[in-house]
Amino acid sequence: MTPDERLEALREHFREIVQVNEQLTEQLDAARDRQTDLTDEVDQLERENETLKTSSLYIATAEELTDDGVVVKQHGNNQEVLTEVSPSIRDGLEAGDRVAINDSFGVKQILDPETDARAQAMQVDGSPEVSYSDIGGLEEQIREVREAVEEPLINADQFREVGIEPPSGVLLHGPPGTGKTMLAKAVANETDATFIKMAGSELVRKFIGEGARLVRDLFELAAEREPAIIFIDEIDAIAAKRTESKTSGDAEVQRTMMQLLSEMDGFDDRGDIRIIAATNRFDMLDRAILRPGRFDRLIEVPNPDVEGRKQIFQIHTRNMNVSDDVDFEALAEEIKDASGADVKAICTEAGMFAIRDDRTEVTMADFHNAWEKIQQEETDDEEVSRTFA
């Protein structure tokens, strides 16, 4: 090779070395970035692991702040303990605040104000727009509910003159869609009472003692807004028969139920607050909640009979443009074992069939088609349930 060829070869080799060096540098930078990401992921996993290994936290209230520490009262067992608090938590802590404590009663964090929990868990309606005329086929149940709930609110003096205490609570039980919630709303409307609605499942909370705290909030809120009616739907979620289960979840549900029983026992029967509960699973309820003094009236709300279904048809078609060929009595006899909610669904579906055909009048055929559609949907749901059972 000539000197020029040798020089060019060396230059070409140098360029290849530079190119390889750049590739190795890029790979090294990528490896370092990957190492950084993995290090961060390991750190996060270690923190999560430490969090999972920590003991459960319990709800408590800071009763008093002293020079020696803070007196905290644990919810559920009402145990009061004087404990020390870190300066960072002490600076933002005030008497009455809710805090999370560990097994050693050490304050770990300050929780949101209880008003936040109320806003999340409770639904308050000033006065529901439901009247007794909107309920069909439940004349006997309406009479019993009015005697137990409405009369003590609007005619308390008569109970005192007679010398009896009004029923402490009313439990409505029956199949779904029979009008239990509508009964409670109608009573609240007639008495101009504040209607406070809560589902029993909403009382099952994350922290130990939080469910019991919400029960207390429920009754305190009713006292602030009296006259008021407390309506607890799906009460079987917290008032099911007690078992020997030792799991923390079952224990918390039972603790919440005991708090509810305690609040009901201390309820002022002649006050301006009434309590109504509803369930679809009456057979699951614990006998403690059914004894006299808690729910004095157990009112069954069954599926309506033929006359009741006819009345419900007339109620839900008051504002509908129905043709003259519609026979509500024949429809009521046809849809055996249908609930009030089913009748309402039939009316809605019948109207949808008329709209689909670009008509403004609902015919008898529309009601027949609506009932067939609802039956088919129920059959399909049962088949799906059996498939996944």
Overview of the structural elements:
This protein is α/β, with parallel strands linked by helices. The protein is built from 13 helices and 11 strands. Strand 2 and strand 3 form a beta hairpin. The longest helix is centred in the first third of the chain and has 51 residues, at 3-53. The chain is flat and about 120 Å long.
> Secondary-structure element sequence?
HEEEHEEHEHHEHEHEHEHEHHHH
Q: What coarse outline follows from CA principal-axis ratios?
A: flat
Rounded radius of gyration (Å): 33 Å
Number of helices: 13
Sheet-strand content, in percent, reads 5-15%
Distance between the termini: 85 Å
Q: Helices, strands, pairings?
A:
Layout: H1 3-53, E1 58-66, E2 69-74, E3 80-83, H2 87-90, E4 98-101, E5 107-110, H3 114-121, E6 123-125, H4 139-154, H5 156-162, E7 169-173, H6 180-191, E8 194-199, H7 210-224, E9 228-233, H8 248-265, E10 273-279, H9 287-290, E11 297-300, H10 306-316, H11 328-334, H12 340-356, H13 364-388
Parallel strand pairs: 7-10, 7-11, 8-9, 9-10
Antiparallel strand pairs: 1-2, 1-4, 2-3, 4-5, 6-8
